[in-house]
Specification:
This protein is α+β, with helices and mostly antiparallel strands. The chain folds into 2 domains: about 10-155, Sandwich (Jelly Rolls); about 160-240, Orthogonal Bundle (Arc Repressor Mutant, subunit A), CATH 1.10.10. The chain is built from 10 helices and 12 strands. Strand 11 (about 220-225) and strand 12 (about 225-230) form a beta hairpin. The radius of gyration is 19 Å and the shape is globular. The chain starts with 13 loop residues before the first helix and ends in a 5-residue tail after the last helix. This is Crp/Fnr family transcriptional regulator. It comes from Providencia rettgeri.
Length: about 240
């Protein structure tokens, strides 16, 4: 693997990268020989905050894994409205759809902090699949995880209240981006109220109303795009409630 990454101050070793990747159950369940092959083929690239990894409609140029930073997967409507599908934290893989069907990218993918991505090129992935067709099964499992996540978002939008959706998404983000804080768990992502509104498909005014109310109750502390989850049990209870 080429582990030289320009413009990054993070010192990465083969062992560091493996440790990060194995936080993902999909990767850690791969046979050792497939892990070795993937690591041999992989390259790393640094993406500054705000750089596009790919646009919706682009040809597939790789299967990716986040090693450092974060990637936002979203789409933009013709009138400029954004729909955020997911945020990807270190250890998460993406790009499997276009690599499997050899078609165009389904969404935009953008680095939202200084980010390092591991990449398996189309040529190398084709070689791996030809020599080790069992890897198709593992790519299908990766794809199924994406589909299940999409169905969850659809179900939540149809069946859960705005409060439940917001609480559920904050708890989900805490799993990937939560850092210990004296008050609770702080999200390392910088999220504006507009960002939260696009994530759960509502308005910024509605998000503001919920956040102000939850701050008064002592459930969260939200200032300048930084959110601290203070009362996790209360948020979990709200996330399971389908009533406004």
């Amino acid at each position: 693997m080429n582990i030289a990454v320009q413009n990054s101050q993070l010192v990465l070793t083969h062992e560091n990268i493996l440790e990060i990747l194995k936080t993902n159950s999909w990767f850690s369940n791969l046979p050792d020989y497939l892990i070795s092959i993937l690591m041999t083929c992989a390259t790393l690239r640094f993406y500054p905050d705000g750089e596009m990894v790919h646009y919706q409609g682009d040809p597939a140029r790789g299967l990716y894994a986040v090693i450092q930073g974060s990637v936002k997967v979203s789409s933009i409507s013709s009138d400029g409205r954004e729909c955020v599908f997911r945020y990807l934290s270190p250890g998460n893989w993406f790009g499997e759809i276009a690599m499997l069907d050899k078609s165009a990218r389904t969404h935009d993918a953008k680095a939202i902090s200084p980010t390092i991505l591991l990449t398996i090129s189309p040529k190398d992935l084709t070689m791996i699949l030809e020599k080790h067709p069992v890897f198709y099964q593992f790519l299908n499992i990766l794809l199924c995880k994406v589909i299940r996540n999409a169905f969850t978002i659809i179900n939540d939008s149809a069946l859960l209240s705005v409060s439940a959706r917001l609480a559920k998404r904050l708890l989900s983000l805490a799993e990937g981006y939560g850092e210990p804080h004296e008050k609770g768990i702080q999200l390392s992502l910088y999220l504006t109220q507009d960002d939260l509104a696009t994530i759960i498909n509502t308005t910024r005014q509605t998000i503001n109303k919920r956040l102000v109310a939850w701050e008064k109750l002592g459930w969260i502390d939200a200032k300048y795009g930084k959110i601290i989850l203070v009362n996790l049990p209360a948020l979990k209870q709200i996330s399971e409630d389908d009533e406004e």
